[in-house]
Amino acid sequence: MTMEQEISLGSEPHAMFVSYNAFDLILGELVPQMQEVSQSVYGHTNPARIEQLGWRVGLAIVERFGSTKGDTLEIMKFICKDVWLVLFRKQIDNLKTNHRGVYVLTDTQFRLFQRMSRPTPSETIAMATPYLEFPAGIIRGILEALGVKASVKAETPGFPTVVFHITTMH
């Protein structure tokens, strides 16, 4: 592994590392497998199962990083800067808020979409959409672990851009 392929999950000298190639491969297999299992068990795909796995990862990330002090906006900045850098090698490109509990996070070059393509843009977006449940779950898990109840919805308005709409519940 080179430093370009891995990043530390903390400031500890012996901190665990995330292999970006392994992360990509795991997610590349996770979504189709969860869709297949959901189809065979429930008779339809259930994106909530993928989101729930992401939620669990979000909880674990907070355990690993430790508690982040501050208000909800500070927590969002933590997600946009620190968490996104560890998971996707870059920071979120844009964070907007109405200061009333609604946040919009935009990643204009979403890493998980780098290797996805279909003949038409609409087919590519349809194929890629299920992969958004996992990072949406990660965001929701981080927020919940830090005491913020929220709903997280993800969409791709145009490939490879991803927008996460977060609404906090007071």
UniProtKB/TrEMBL annotation:
Domain of life, per lineage: Eukaryota
CC terms in the record's Gene Ontology section: cis-Golgi network; trans-Golgi network; TRAPP complex
InterPro entries given in the database record: NO_sig/Golgi_transp_ligand-bd (IPR024096), TRAPP_component (IPR007194), TRAPPC6/Trs33 (IPR037992)
BP-aspect Gene Ontology terms: endoplasmic reticulum to Golgi vesicle-mediated transport
Gene3D superfamilies xref list: Trafficking protein particle complex subunit 3
Family, similarity comment: Belongs to the TRAPP small subunits family. BET3 subfamily.
Protein known as: Trafficking protein particle complex subunit 6B
Lineage: Eukaryota, Fungi, Dikarya, Ascomycota, Saccharomycotina
